[in-house]
Amino acid sequence: xxxxxxxxxxxxxxxxxxxxxxxxxxxxxxxxxxxxxxxxxxxxxxxxxxxxxxxxxxxxxxxxxxxxxxxxxxxxxxxxxxxxxxxxxxxxxxxxxxxxxxxxxxxxxxxxxxxxxxxxxxxxxxxxxxxxxxxxxxxxxxxxxxxxxxxxxxxxxxxxxxxxxxxxxxxxxxxxxxxxxxxxxxxxxxxxxxxxxxxxxxxxxxxxxxxxxxxxxxxxxxxxxxxxxxxxxxxxxxxxxxxxxxxxxxxxxxxxxxxxxxxxxxxxxxxxxxxxxxxxxxxxxxxxxxxxxxxxxxxxx
Length: 301
Ligand SMILES: [Zn+2]
Hints:
By secondary structure, the protein is of the alpha+beta class. It has 7 helices and 15 strands. The strands form 4 sheets. Strands 10, 11, 12, 13, 14 and 15 form a 6-stranded mixed beta sheet that branches. Helix 3 (101-107) runs antiparallel to helix 4. Zinc ion binds at residues 132, 134-135, 137, 150, 152-153, 155.
């Protein structure tokens, strides 16, 4: 179970806007907010989000620069905050150079990084869902961007969030970590994988550990979750236990998977040794930190 401090500090959470689930359906109210000079726009695209120093930029747009449809993020102290897609076709003026979300998360406060993630993930979904998955007709934005509707067949489409389980498995004195071939030399992290249809989160944890390491995990315990806007995942973190059998990478996803001693992992967290760990913006690092905080070193370590 996550402590309050872990939850409060998780990057890409902490959006403070009121998302206005009811009033956003009122087209008259929405049009007035959209054209009000006090409206502000958060600009994001596939390459990141526009920043203003150590905050997300809140742009004032001229009437001629407004996006075709309002995508309302919410109200900030009564002032409407909309999203504008930097990659929209026909955008007349370049609004600025975006900062990649991972870099933004390292710079911004938790609430500002949460706003960046919210805008980027919502805009990415709209950008990639212009057509209906049922009848292939063009879809339109409704509910101020909270969903899309297909005028041809009436289907209603909602923004996707794909659940991914991410887990740190421990055995007495040891932590199971894996690495992808594309990562920098020496970098290892928690195992992870998408949840399959007809599967609980706990079942996904056990299956993924079996597929990626041929290790039988048991007792999956929920830790915390994190929106991961690359482009629209929700990382659901677990700890689990296992016997310290030799792991074998099996499904071709991982280049290597192995048990590290608690001592090695603690040294890596302190910046010592050759083992590289995920950055502090990732729930993977929080999972690893929490695992070695409670795991005693092995008697021979
Ligand atoms: Zn349709």
